[in-house]
Amino acid sequence: MSYLAPLREMQFVLYELLHSDEVLPALPGYEDATRDIMDAMLNEGAKLTQNVIAPTNVPGDRQGCVYDPETKSVKTPDGFREAYKQFAENGWTALSSPLEYGGQGMPHLLNTVAEEMMCSANLSLGMYPGLTHGAVNALLSYGTDEQKDYYLPRLISGEWTGTMCLTEPQCGTDLGLIRTKAEPQADGSYAVTGTKIWITGGEQDLTDNIVHLVLAKLPDAPGGSKGISLFLVPKVLPDGSRNTAFCGGLEHKMGIRGSATCVMNFEGAKGWLIGEAHKGLQAMFVMMNSARLMVGIQGLGLAEAAYQVSLGFAKERLQSRSLAGPQAPDQAADPIIVHPDVRRMLLRQKATIEGCRALAYYTVMQLDISQHGADEEARERADDMVQLLTPVVKAFLTDEGFFCANDGLQLMGGSGFTQDWPLEQFVRDARITRIYEGTNGIQALDLVGRKMGMNGGRSVKRFFAMVDGFLKEHPDAPYAGALKAALERLQKATLWLMQNGMTDREQAGAAATPYLRLFALTTVAFFWSRMALVARQQLDAGSTETDFYQAKLAAGQFFIDRILPQSLALMAEIESGKDSLMAMTAEQF
Amino acid sequence: MSYLAPLREMQFVLYELLHSDEVLPALPGYEDATRDIMDAMLNEGAKLTQNVIAPTNVPGDRQGCVYDPETKSVKTPDGFREAYKQFAENGWTALSSPLEYGGQGMPHLLNTVAEEMMCSANLSLGMYPGLTHGAVNALLSYGTDEQKDYYLPRLISGEWTGTMCLTEPQCGTDLGLIRTKAEPQADGSYAVTGTKIWITGGEQDLTDNIVHLVLAKLPDAPGGSKGISLFLVPKVLPDGSRNTAFCGGLEHKMGIRGSATCVMNFEGAKGWLIGEAHKGLQAMFVMMNSARLMVGIQGLGLAEAAYQVSLGFAKERLQSRSLAGPQAPDQAADPIIVHPDVRRMLLRQKATIEGCRALAYYTVMQLDISQHGADEEARERADDMVQLLTPVVKAFLTDEGFFCANDGLQLMGGSGFTQDWPLEQFVRDARITRIYEGTNGIQALDLVGRKMGMNGGRSVKRFFAMVDGFLKEHPDAPYAGALKAALERLQKATLWLMQNGMTDREQAGAAATPYLRLFALTTVAFFWSRMALVARQQLDAGSTETDFYQAKLAAGQFFIDRILPQSLALMAEIESGKDSLMAMTAEQF
C-alpha cells in the first residue's frame, strides 16, 4: 500500500526525453541543476515523501481538520505539524525560490517533480506549502522591496504559509462580483472587511503566522473585474499583535479532508496594497497560473498513487483463470493481471500517467526557460508554450487523474470501495482538482478564448510547427502515422474554431471542452511518439533495461490504439456546433 | 434540494413509447395493469419517496450504520426503521410478487418505476427491500412448497428481508473458490460454516428476521463452480430460536453508508438446501439477474437525483454574463444555465437519463412479457431481449449514473464538492453500482462470452432485426441516418468479435468493455429515435405540451451530436485487438 516515488520514470522524462541535464545548467542562474544534483535531491525527496509524508495520508483523511469556535483556531490531523516541519526544515518549501530571499534557486522543474511526490504521498498536507508558492510569486512580481524583504524569507523558508483569498459566497468564477472592501487608512494601510470562502489553509496549526493575499475593492473602484485590488493581510501583524482576520468555520468536503478549507472573516483587518490599485486581477493571475500547473501535478500524483496500489492488487489477487488457460497452475486461480480487461484498466492508468508526466514536465521546463532563457527570443518562445499549455495541463491531468483513480478503484472491485484500501480516498481527493483554481470548463474557455488568439495565434502556430517539425525529422518514429492524423484533426478543429468561434462566442463556448481534450490527446500522443522513439533507440543500441523500454513501447501503443481514437468523437462533437446545446430555453429544461 | 419523481418523463416512456397500457393488460395475469391503476400507484409512490424516504437520505449518510460487537447487532440510521415500515405497510415490497403469496401481482415494470424513485430518494434504504426480491425469486423458482408457504408471504410483505451471501474474502468474481461448507444433518437440514463478506443487510434493525441465501459446498462437492449449492439460513429459526449466523462487523465504505454491509459468520448455522445439490449457481443466477437489472436502475435513479439538484443550481446561481450578451440585465450576473459549457453538462445528464430510462423500462417490460406472454414464441422473443440487454442495462446505466452525477457535481463547482449539497454523496453512492452484482467488466464478458452466442446468436440477430425494422418502417424518423450508421458500426464490431473472439478468447476479453458500450450507445440511439418520432408526431398533431416535446427533440439531438460519436472511438478500440493489452509481461508492469 505504501508509495514508492517512480524515480526511474521521472528520470526518463527529465533526462532521456527532455535532456533537462543539458538544457537547464546552460541557463544563467541554473548552473547547479546538473543531473548529479537533481538526482541527489530527488532521492532525498523520495525518502521524505515515502517515509514521513505518506504515512500521514490515510489517518489525516479519517481524522480531518477540527475547528474550535471558541478560539477560532483549526487543528490539523495528528502528525501533520511534525511532517510539515520536517518538509520545511529540509528545504523543500524553498527549492525553486530566489537565492536572495533564502531560496535554493533551483528550477521549477525540480520543484514540480518534488510536488508530484508530495501529491502522491499526501495531497492534503501538500496543499499548505503548495499555496504558499502563489503568494511568493505574487510578492516577487508586485511587492515593494520592504514587503519582499519582510515576508519572502519567512514564506520561502516555510516558517509561515500563504493563502489566496478570492472566492466569496456570491462569486467564484466571476470575480467581478466581489464585495470585500478595503478602506484606506491614515498610515497608508487598508482596513479590509468581508467574507471569503473555500480558503485553503486560511487557518492552521502548522505555522505561527499566515499571510493572506486578499482580493478586495477600494471605495473608488470601477465596477466589474477591473475594480479589484490585491492586499496582503497577515494573521499576525509585524508588531506581533493579532490581526482581525479570523476563521469562521471549516467546509465539510468529499475529500482532501486533511486540508483546512476555511471561511475567512476579515473584520477591518489591517492590510497593504500589493501592486497597483484596481490591478489586482493581474497579480492574481500570477498566483493563479503557477497554481494551475500545480493542480495539474496533483492530478498526476494521485493517478500515480492509485496506479501503484491497484497494480500491486492486480498482481496479488487470485481470481479466475486466464482466458488462454491457467497461468499459475499451482495456485487456486491466476492473478487478475492476466485478464485483458484488467490490463485495459491498468494500461489506461500507465499510458495516461506517463504521457501526462511528459507533458507536464515539458511545460514546467518551458517555464524555467521563459524566466532564465539566455535571450529574449528563447524566453518568448518558451513563454508561449507555458501560456498555451497551462490550461491543458490543469484540465487534462486532473480529469485523467480522477479517471485513472477510478480505473484503479474499479479493477479492485469491492475492495476499492472500502476504506481498507486508499483508492476511495484517492478518488475523493482527486475530485476537487477538476474544480479549484478555475474549473476545467473555465480552463477550456481560457484555451479557446484567450490563449489561442494571443499574439495573432502565435503560440498555437508554434505548437503545430513543433509537432510537424518532429514528424518531418522522424518520419519513421513510432506512431508517426497516428500522430500525423491526430495533428491534422486538431488543425481542422482549430480552423473550425477560428471560423466559427470568433464571430459567435457561443460557438467557441460550445466547442471549448472537447477542443481542450482534443488538444491534450494530440499533445500526449506527440510526447508518446517521442518517448517511444527514445525507447526504440535504446533497445536498438542494446540497452540492458529491456523490460523498461519494452514497457514504454507497449504503453505508448496502448495510448495510440485505445485512448487517442477518442479524438474522432471529440472532432464530431466540436463540429456539431452549438445548436443542440442552445436549442432549449432555460424553462424547457 | 428535494426530490420530485419525474412522473411526466416516466409516463412518456411507459405509455407513449412502450404503450405498456395496451401491452401489459393484454397479458394473462396483468389485466389490472391499466393506465389508471399504474398512474394511481405511481402517484402514491411519488408521495412516499418524496415525503418519507428522501428526507432520510443525507442524515443516513452522515450517521451511517453502527455495529455493536457485544450483541453482534446493527443499528441503521435514525428514521430508516420508520420509513421502511411505511414502505412495507403500504405494499411496496409486495408490488410485483405473486398474489398467492400475498403479493399484488403487478408487472415488474411498475415495480421498476417505483425502484427508480426509491433509488433517487435513498439508495441505501432502498437496498434492504431491493435485495429481498432476489431471495423471493430464488425461492419461487427453486423452493419446495413448504419453503414457499412459510417464507414467501413474510418476505413479500416486508415483514422479513432477504440477503444474498455469495462473496468470501478469497472469492468475489470467481465463485468456484468458495470455502463455506454445508454438512448434512440427521433431520434433513445442513450445518453451514464459513465467512461471507460484503453482505448487504446481513444484519439490521428494520425487521425481526432475515433470510440469508447462502452459497456453500457440500462435502462431496466437485471442484470449481459446479460444486456450489444454495442454502436458506434464517437468522431466527422457525421454532423461534436464534440461529448461529452472526454479523462479525461492518465495512467502512466510500458511499451507501446507510446500507449495512456486513461480514457474516456462519457458525454451524442451520440451513436448508434450495433446489438441487451442486446446482446452486443456477439458482444464484435467478437472484442475480433480477438484481442486475435493479442495479442498473440504481444508476438511473442516482443520475436523476443528481440532475434535479444540479439543474436547480444552474437556474439559480448567478455568475458571469452570457457570451451572447446579458440575459438578466437587472441582476448582477446571468444564471449559469446560459453558458454553453454548463448546458453541455446538463444535457449530458438529461439526454443520458431519458435514453437510459427508455432502455431500462423496455427491458423490464420484456421481462414481464417473458413471464406472462400469451404464447411460447412471444415469451421466448422477450426472454431473448432480457438476456441480451441485462448486462447492457447493468453496466451502461451504472457507468453513466456515475458520470452524470459527476457532471452534476462539476457544474456546481466548489459547492458540489461540499457536503452542503448532496451531489458528493450521489457520486459516492453511485460508485459502488459499477462494481457489485458483477463488476461492469464482468457484465461485458457476460455479453460477449455468453449472451451473444446463446442459441446461435439468436438474441443479437433479433435485436439487429428490430432496429433495422424500425429504420425500414420509419426511414424519416429523427436521427435515422445517425442510427443507421451506428447500427452498421455495431454489426461490423459484432462480426469482428465473431471472427476473432471465438477462436481466441483473449480477443473477446480485450473487446468486451468497448463492445458493451458500443452496444449500449446504439441501443440508446435507437430509443432516442423512437422517442423523438413520438415527440415530432405530437408536435405535428398540435399538442399543447410544446415545451415538453421540444425538449425531447433537443435532448435527442444532443445525444446524437455529442454522445453517440463515441462509437467511432469504441470501434477503433475494438478493432485494435488484444495486442497492446497483452504485449507486456506481468513483471514489466
From TrEMBL, chains A, B:
Pfam family, one: Acyl-CoA_dh_C
Domain Acyl-CoA dehydrogenase/oxidase N-terminal as annotated: residue spans: 81-159
Reported cofactor(s): FAD
This protein's record includes keyword Flavoprotein: yes
Domain Acyl-CoA dehydrogenase/oxidase C-terminal: 279-446
Superkingdom in the source lineage: Bacteria
Keywords: FAD, Flavoprotein, Oxidoreductase
Positions of the Acetyl-CoA dehydrogenase-like C-terminal domain: 463-584
Gene3D superfamilies membership: Acyl-CoA dehydrogenase/oxidase, N-terminal domain, Butyryl-CoA Dehydrogenase, subunit A, domain 2, Butyryl-CoA Dehydrogenase, subunit A, domain 3
InterPro entries: Acyl-CoA_dh-like_C_dom, Acyl-CoA_Oxase/DH_mid-dom, Acyl-CoA_Oxase/DH_mid-dom_sf, AcylCo_DH-like_C, AcylCo_DH/oxidase_C, AcylCoA_DH/ox_N, AcylCoA_DH/ox_N_sf, AcylCoA_DH/oxidase_NM_dom_sf
Record-annotated Acyl-CoA oxidase/dehydrogenase middle domain positions: 164-267
Family listed: Belongs to the acyl-CoA dehydrogenase family.
Name this polypeptide is given: Acyl-CoA dehydrogenase C-terminal domain-containing protein
Species name: Thalassolituus marinus
